[in-house]
Amino acid sequence: MTPFVGWTRVAVMGVLSLQLCVAAFAQEEKREQDLGKSLQSSPTGQTGAGTGSTGMAAAKPGKADGMGNPRLGGDRRPLYRLTRSDVVTLSFTLSPEFDQILTIQPDGYVSLKDAAPVLAQGLTVEEFRLAVRQAYIGYLHDPQVAVALKEFEHPYFVAGGEVGHPGKYELRADTSIMEAVQIAGGFTHEAKHSQVLLFRHVNDDVVEARIFNLKKMLKDRSLGEAAQLRPGDLVFVPQNSISKIEQFLSKPSLSMYVSSTQF
């Protein structure tokens, strides 16, 4: 009977070992599945801030909501939002007779064929597509529509103040505030290089203003610190203090008491 008892004991230990191995394998598999879910929860396949990751994890990317400024909670590259005079094309997959080309009116609306007007201004192309689809639900069964932006306002920036050629310029590529000044004709002799202003619309009610010391950037050769412009930015170069009082001073007295290195 003894060998039988010993064999039974070994068998029980083997069963326990097998159960422990299975439990360990299941736990490891669950951990890998949870990790996979965690990775899939990030739009870029990377963990972000607030997910319990370490400092080595990539920062959580901002959601493209078109509201503007990453320093104030917006996005670095916001989606384009429709504005007045933009032209869009509507293509209906199952009902081509409803295809149309629309121009956004001054009031921000578009007049749809056989449907109620839809507000387009301020919407992204995808938001506008959903609005059009909703407008046709009462007229078409499960309307399938695609929207394409045909004509739109080209990105631009405005340069004003003490630059050679103030005005509105197309923003065709990545452009720094320093490059914007050069595009606008450079500084005039009355420009205050150390207090160049950059105005940026954060939304319809908020405008952010920042001051850049371009004189110091040029002197220190630290042009990498110059801000990159975004569509709609205004670069304003004010007058220096000499130019404000120059009309009241004679040239000799001006050169005698004021050093140009102060400005």
Break the fold down into its secondary structure elements and pairings.
Elements lengths: L1 H39 L46 E6 L7 E4 L5 E2 L7 E2 L5 H12 L8 E7 L4 E6 L5 E4 L6 H7 L12 E6 L5 E6 L1 H7 L13 E4 L3 H5 L5 H7 L6
Parallel strand pairs: 6-10
Antiparallel strand pairs: 1-2, 1-5, 3-4, 6-7, 8-9, 8-10
In short:
The chain is of the alpha+beta class.
Order of helices and strands: HEEEEHEEEHEEHEHH
Output the CATH homologous superfamily of one domain: Outer membrane lipoprotein wza domain like
Q: CATH topology of one domain, which one?
A: Outer membrane lipoprotein wza fold like
Quickly name the level 1 CATH class of one domain: Alpha Beta
Q: What is the alpha-carbon Rg in Å?
A: 32 Å
Number of helices: 6
Rounded to the nearest angstrom, the distance between the terminal CA atoms is 106 Å
What do you see in this structure?
The protein is α+β, with helices and mostly antiparallel strands and 263 residues long. Among the domains are: 87-151, wza like fold; 156-247, Outer membrane lipoprotein wza fold like (Roll), CATH 3.10.560. It has six helices and ten strands. The protein has helices at residues 2-40, 125-136, 177-183, 214-220, 241-245, 251-257; strands at 87-92, 100-103, 109-110, 118-119, 145-151, 156-161, 167-170, 196-201, 207-212, 234-237. The strands form three sheets. Strands 7-6-10-8-9 form a five-stranded mixed beta sheet, with helices on one face. It has a three-stranded antiparallel beta sheet with strand order 2-1-5, covered by helices on one side. A two-stranded antiparallel ribbon has the order 3-4.
